Amino acid sequence: MNLATDDFTLFGLPQRFALDRAAVDERWRALQATMHPDNVASASAAEQQAATQWAVRINEARERLKSPVQRAALLCELRGVSMDARASRNAVPMAFLVRQMSWRETLDEARGAEAVERLDAEVAAHERETLENLRVLLDERNDTAAAAQLTWVLTYIARLRDAINERLDALDA
């Protein structure tokens, strides 16, 4: 194996957006079982260091493959579309930015858990729609440019969902 191998190849999975999370976890366990540093505890320092590097690499790959945002970005990069942060400036449609700003204002103005939960349901529905559209663009249409745009949209949605969850936690406290 090669440390520079892409995450899909490392895990023996197809380069697809739609992945079975159980398959990712199963492959991670198999890789960890063979490459874990404990397996080389009595080996040389170089072998121990290599095993540690592999363990880190395998863990990082698992996190990328399990995260829809990171997985979509990885697929875009592998297919030749840069996901550099500078590219995001023009990638996110203005209509979505306006909607996202409205959601943020709604979150800021929400006075109780019920209002925040309504917003969360609306944003979650948009997130599900975006995920399905990404699956179609990446796995069926091979439209990486459009998928990259939706990947940036998904990053905004993910940050908003995090803010909503933080707000709900604060309201529960």
Automatic annotation (TrEMBL):
Residues 93-164 form the Co-chaperone HscB C-terminal oligomerisation domain. InterPro entries: HscB, HscB_C_sf, HscB_oligo_C, J_dom_sf. It comes from Azohydromonas lata. HAMAP family: HscB (MF_00682). Gene3D superfamilies: DnaJ domain (1.10.287.110), HscB, C-terminal domain (1.20.1280.20). This is Co-chaperone protein HscB homolog. Pfam families: HSCB_C. The gene is hscB. Transmembrane segments: none annotated. Interacts with HscA and stimulates its ATPase activity. Keywords: Chaperone. Belongs to the HscB family. Co-chaperone involved in the maturation of iron-sulfur cluster-containing proteins. Seems to help targeting proteins to be folded toward HscA.
